[in-house]
Amino acid sequence: MKRADAPDQAERGPVQVITRAASILRALEDQPAGLSLGQIAQRVDLARSTVQRIVAALEAEKLLIAASPTGRVRLGPTLLRLASSVQSDFVSLCRPWLVKLSAELSETVDLAAIKRDYLIFLDQVIGSQRLRAVSSVGETFPLYCTANGKAYLAQLGNDAVEELVGRSYPARTPTTLTTYDALLQDLRRIRRTGVAFDREEHTVGVCAAGVVLRDSLGNYLAISVPVPAQRFYDRQTEIAEHLLATKRALEDQLESAAA
After folding, report:
1. Going by CATH, does the domain composed of 80-258 fall within 3.30.450.40?
2. CA quadruple 166, 171, 175, 176: dihedral positive or negative?
3. Which tens digits make up the pLDDT trace of 103-119?
4. What class does CATH assign to 10-75?
5. Residues ≥6 apart with Cβ < 8 Å to 44
6. Which of 41, 80, 118, 248 could form a disulfide with 51 if both were Cys (CB 3.0 to 4.6 A apart)?
């Protein structure tokens, strides 16, 4: 039985305290309304008094903040700043691989993050071709008609796809997939091959291939190669192979960094 009035010997060890603090932070993930100390204690299997001490220390660092006047707490703004820093680091980590991929293909390469039901471009390496496809960093795109968006949707279950994007979609071009069933058929192929294609589905005259991977926090990011349609169809297999090789290399680097 736990003693609520005094910490045990293991708790006094700094490593054990960090482990318990991390458990408390994880317990509050996806809890925008926060949790009470009792709820946290139950989820992490610690005495309420232990949770109270650790929560107080985390609140002092703004890693947790009050979620209600009744003592509930939730994740704090310091975590957002730390997460933002990690994403910036990931962009920096990806940059040499984006440059390498662009040089191999002589095409533009984009890095995008997924924000609920749309993509936002984080970085871009512009290709050396005189006729090239270019978007702006910070620009947003829908998921259902872009290569990087469909690469992400293919990671989800069918029900989650329907919940996120619905069952019918605006036709941006004559080749846009406008129904859930047509999109699902394409996602099945993407799940088999690991590469998604946009064949003039978002913009007439522009195609793309895309892959998706996860950063060290588990967030999805997508790498895509947009290409003018007149060059794309003869090169789509080559582009897909280079994209998959880049994805594997980045995943290996992330795995090594985490080891």
Report:
1. yes
2. negative
3. 999 999 999 999 888 99
4. mainly alpha
5. 20, 23, 24, 27, 51
6. 41
Residue by residue, DSSP assigns 141-189 as EESTTSHHHHHHHTTS-HHHHHHHH-SB---SSTT---BHHHHHHHHHH
What sign does the dihedral 142-138-151-228 (CA atoms) show? positive
Average pLDDT, the chain: 87
DSSP 209-238: EEEEEE-TTS-EEEEEEEEEHHHHHHHHHH
Contact 144, 153 (CB under 8 A): yes
Q: Domain spans of the chain?
A: 10-75, 80-258
Q: What pLDDT does residue 11 have? A: 46
Q: Which residue has the higher pLDDT, 88 or 257?
A: 257
Q: Long-range contacts of range 63-68, CB-CB < 8 Å, 24 or more positions apart?
A: 63/25, 64/24, 64/25, 64/28, 66/34, 67/33, 67/34, 67/35, 68/33, 68/34
CB count, 10 Å around CB of 178? 16
Angle between helix axes 48-60 and 14-27 (nearest 10 degrees) is 90
How big is the chain, counted in residues?
A: 259
Q: What is the DSSP letter of 11?
A: G
pLDDT at 29 over 50: yes
Higher pLDDT, 81 or 105: 105
For residue 213, the cross-strand partners are 221
pLDDT of residue 10: 46
pLDDT digits (tens, 9 = 90+) for 214-251: 887 788 999 999 999 999 999 999 999 999 999 999 99
Q: Which amino acid is it at 190?
A: I
